[in-house]
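Data card: per-record layout.
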Amino acid sequence: MTKHPDDVLNGESDPFKGDPNYMASLARGLEVIQAFTPQRPVLSISQISQKTGIPRAAVRRCLYTLGKLGFVYAEDGKNFQLRPRILSLGHAWLASTPLARSAQPVLKHLSEMLNESCSIATLDGDDILYIARASSSRIMTIDLDIGSRLPAWATSMGRVLLSHQPEEKLNDMLARVTMIRYTPQTVDSVSKLRTELKRVRQQGYALNDQELEMGLRSLAVPLFNPQGHCVAALNVGVHAGQVSASEMVERVLPELQKAAKELTLLLR
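The structure for this 268-residue chain is written out next.
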């Protein structure tokens, strides 16, 4: 059977090479979409090609198709941006997920009571994906909102989620992870991270003390479904200069745990 050129990925790193059911052209289109980030919302064909490793000709065809479907546009014909219609790709999932759909009132109440920012995230690959958020103030240089992603290993919610992963799955993730020293306090080795994940699971919460960004201290707890599986995490983020680590555990943790119990009811 003759394959269309778009159905063949260049290079030997394609893990799905030889799979007759794998549509490489669709995979490429999704990679092009994911190349856009809050930090890089406008990209040229060559920039996308460099970032994804996809040949420029294939990137051009992907963008042409996405443009015809209303997902991207380039006012000058060279520099592309996502269009609002891209939100439709994630809206169906968010709308059909009870936790994401119903958690906002609980998050808003918790945020107002503590006067701090609160979020819920799930594990998506090696990242956490924000599915709900109530922000009292901006405490990070990174803008966070629903759909934002951060490396799981470096965040309080990610460590809660990773601590409940099966050993084999966790080992695979830790074998892939590139540990970046975001701050002087960032855990800087896989062995130290493993020790921290064991502590997180035993104590039932994760405290991230300025490891992702100086001045940011966050506390997270797990959210369990009726089968006892950790399917999401809830956290509170504070200014490190205003709330100490001990106060996070003594004052904030009980309120976070109460909210987690309430949110767990939405998973039934």
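Known properties of this structure: The longest strand covers residues 230-239. The beta strands are 43-44, 72-73, 79-82, 117-124, 127-134, 149-151, 206-209, 216-224, 230-239.

See the next section for split statistics.
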